[in-house]
Design brief:
It is a single chain. By secondary structure, the chain is of the alpha+beta class. The strands form four sheets. A seven-stranded antiparallel sheet has the order 4-3-2-1-7-6-5, covered by helices on one side. 28% of the residues are buried. Residues 99-123, 238-271, 288-342 are annotated as: Disordered. One of its GO terms (molecular function) is cholesterol binding.
């Protein structure tokens, strides 16, 4: 009855070693094996998918499993044990086939709002279909054995037996025939029942679709009412004979409303609405007229009172969106930028059978799959992590903010900007070797210097530290958890990102969202970001909730949409964030808020009246010929550019990555295998040292990072790697004696 079956079997290896004892685990339609039970924690020797496998039995103890080009010859200790395994394998195969046929793709392509409805509808149908499949299988077995019984009785009837025996055999044969007829009737009844259930399912789906359309029309009506409400408020404030502080719609005459229609029509075209966040109060924003709010600012709601005149100050940080003037004001003490490369060799056009490599990787951790460089881009994961600094000037602007909520807007825009480089970047970065480092020293040009180090290999973890002389420090330790699901690849960054501003002491913490690469097997690869980011200022307790809306074919929203609200420690909303993670982010100051009607999901919508949005961040255009250069940005093109005086463990010196960038992919594959084998040898030696220390009763520390050390973070309470110093001093002295030989 359990979904998992484990035990020892003998597996044929080769003619020299014959059958070897292996530990087999059957789970979720996959049969995996290990040399020992202890290996289950870290090393899988092989996996076969039962949904497309053929199960055969050669003799009393042997089992043969074949799936395409892979075949397992297995042997059990006894016939009873063999039969147990065969039964478990057959049941697991039938279940895997049903799951493959019935399970819908959960990659986020469906409309999010209808997930609960669909699960409520399809849940019982899936269970019903599963039970009917089981019943049909049992009936087929009954029919099969009944036919065999009839054949045996017919053979007995043809033999010369006493008369009374012949009569008994004839009676039994008639009963077997009756049993077979009854079984066939039951099968037909089951099929009729299944057809009836499917017809009702289609009827329920039509009714559900009708309800969805009704809900959409209702939401559109609510939005139109919000627009009309805003127009009426403007008409009330501008109507003659009314006090400037009066906002009562009941005292507005019909004529004044009609006279204001012409004025309201222009604003209606600029009105913006934002969908509700799942775990936060739903809200709608309406763009307000700054003139009216400047004239009657004392009448704003006390719940979200704002000062629109502050929004239009010419010396506001929000007005410094002109990058050239901003760099002039912030970069007077910086040296002119060094001339760096603007292109790399074009990507070769190599063909590759993707399925032949991927079919044996389903369900495995991505970092444990041996991949050719054909799937890579010529950058390491450490360099991709450094790419988060592409829009570092957002943090430089945030330093100048006097208000913590205003500063939060820039931090939120920075957190979104790090995803803009991923929209076309579907290739996999190189997995860094243990001890590999990457530095980006732009202290004299851009005011910051960055250092990354691979501090763990399984699970892969990288530590990152950035210091800016413009007044901020950023650090993080990111562990990448990734799973290949067959149709798509999920990449889940684990770990918190810390940002601290030197002058104010504001300490911001947030975490990354999940990235999903779709169409791994068939179709054009594309990437999506989904989930929520909560940015918390642990000094002022300000918060920003950002929602990354997953792509939906049926949604009318713009693709890659991001929305959010910035609120203070008391929960009062100050700004609305909106935009897309691949293009731009805007910020709108809230001047008035009111509670609207309750939505169909039972959530109450909040209507935010805002001033015109300000663009905080806009993506830089890609360089010319970017499609042939892995869609690298201007910064990415310079990340692997050779530099002098870097550490011998720097990613720029990695030979397989350098060969791939030069277009010599065959040589890069050979070099990549050499480096990975070298790393495995070091790991085996380290494991042997750990075992030896354990036998001698000594403590074994394991791998110790070079430039980082593990400490308990006072803010999150997590154990993370933080920079301990010494790297830049070692670079000045060119003393790299502590660096291991990893290349």
């Amino acid at each position: 009855g359990s979904d998992t079956y484990k035990g020892w079997l003998f597996k044929w290896t080769n003619y020299l070693k014959g059958y070897q004892r292996r530990w087999f685990v059957l789970s979720n339609g996959l049969l995996s094996y290990y040399r020992t039970q202890a290996e289950m924690a870290h090393t899988c020797r092989g996996t076969i998918n039962l949904s497309t496998a053929h199960i055969d039995t050669e003799d009393s103890c042997n089992i043969v499993l074949s799936n395409g080009g892979r075949t397992y010859h297995l042997k059990a200790n006894s016939e009873v044990e063999r039969q147990r395994w065969v039964t478990a394998l057959e049941l697991a195969k039938a279940k895997a086939i049903r799951m493959r046929n019935n399970q819908s793709d959960d990659s986020g392509d469906e409309e999010p709002a209808s997930q609960s409805d669909k699960s409520e509808l399809h849940g019982p149908l899936k269970t019903l279909s599963s039970k009917l499949e089981d019943l049909s299988t049992c009936n087929e077995l009954i029919a099969k054995h009944g036919a065999a019984l009839q054949r045996s009785l017919s053979e007995l009837e043809s033999l010369r037996l006493p008369a009374d025996s012949g009569e008994k055999i004839k009676a039994v044969n008639e009963r077997a025939t009756l049993f077979r007829i009854t079984s066939n009737a039951m099968i037909n009844a089951c099929r009729d029942f299944l057809d009836l259930a499917e017809s009702h399912s289609r009827k329920w789906q039509r009714l559900l679709q009708h309800e969805r359309e009704q809900r959409i029309r209702l939401e559109e009506t609510i939005e139109q009412l919000a627009k009309q409400h805003n127009s009426l408020e403007r008409a009330c404030r501008g109507a003659p004979g009314l006090a400037s502080g009066t906002a009562s719609i009941s005292s507005t005459t019909k004529g004044s409303v009609q006279s204001a229609k012409g004025e309201a029509s222009d604003e209606d075209e600029e009105t913006e609405y934002f969908d509700a966040m799942e775990d936060a109060p739903a809200f709608i924003t309406v763009t307000a007229d700054p003139k009216h709010h400047r004239r009657s600012g004392s009448n704003l709601s006390g719940a979200s009172e704002g000062h629109p005149e502050d929004w239009n100050l010419e010396d506001s940080v929000f007005e410094s969106s002109n990058q050239s003037s901003y760099n002039e004001s912030m970069g007077k003490d910086l040296l002119p930028r060094k001339r760096r490369r603007t292109r790399i060799p074009d990507k070769p056009n190599y063909s590759l059978n993707l399925w032949s490599i991927m079919k044996n990787c389903i369900g495995k951790e991505l970092s444990k799959i041996p991949m050719p460089v054909n799937f890579n881009e010529p950058l390491s994961m450490l360099q991709r992590l450094t790419e988060d600094l592409e829009y570092h000037e957002l943090l430089d602007k945030a330093v100048k903010c006097e208000s913590s909520t205003e500063q939060m807007c820039f931090v939120a825009a920075f957190s979104v900007s790090s995803y803009s480089t991923t929209v076309h970047r579907t290739a996999k970065p190189f997995n860094p070797l243990l001890g590999e480092t990457y530095e980006l020293d732009r202290l004299e040009e851009l005011g910051f210097r960055s250092l990354c180090e691979q501090v763990s290999h399984h699970p892969p973890a990288a530590a990152h530290h950035v210091y800016s002389r413009r007044g901020w420090t950023l650090w993080q330790e990111i562990t990448i958890a990734s799973k290949f699901r067959g149709k798509y690849l999920s990449i889940m960054p684990l770990g918190a990102i810390h940002l601290e501003f030197h002058s104010s002491g504001n300490h911001y913490v947030w975490r990354k969202v999940t990235s999903t690469v779709h169409n791994i097997i068939v179709g054009k690869l594309w990437i999506d970001q989904s989930g929520e980011i909560e940015i918390v200022n642990h000094k002022s307790k300000d918060k920003c909730q950002l929602k990354f809306t997953p792509y939906s074919y049926f949604s009318r929203d713009v693709p890659r949409k991001v929305t959010g609200v910035v609120s203070d420690a008391d929960g009062k909303a100050h700004y609305v964030m909106s935009g897309t993670w691949d293009e731009k982010m805007e910020c709108s100051k809230i001047v008035h808020s009111s509670h609207g009607s309750t939505s169909t999901e039972g959530k109450q919508k909040t209507v935010y009246q805002t001033l015109s949005p300000k663009v905080l961040w806009r993506k830089y255009p890609l360089p010319e010929n970017a499609e042939n250069m892995y869609f690298f940005s201007e910064l990415a093109l310079t990340l692997n550019e050779p530099e002098e005086r870097v550490a011998p463990t720097d990613s720029r010196l990695r030979p397989d990555q350098r060969l791939m960038e030069s277009g010599r992919w065959d040589e890069a594959n050979v070099e990549k295998q050499r480096l990975e084998e070298k790393q495995r040898a070091v790991r085996r030696r380290r494991e042997a040292e750990a075992v030896e220390a354990l036998e001698e009763g000594k403590d074994y520390e394991g791998y110790i990072p070079l430039w980082f050390e593990r400490k308990l973070d006072a803010v999150t309470g997590e154990l993370i790697c933080v920079y301990k110093g010494g790297y830049w001093e070692a670079k000045d002295k060119q003393d790299w004696s502590v660096c291991p030989d990893i290349f």
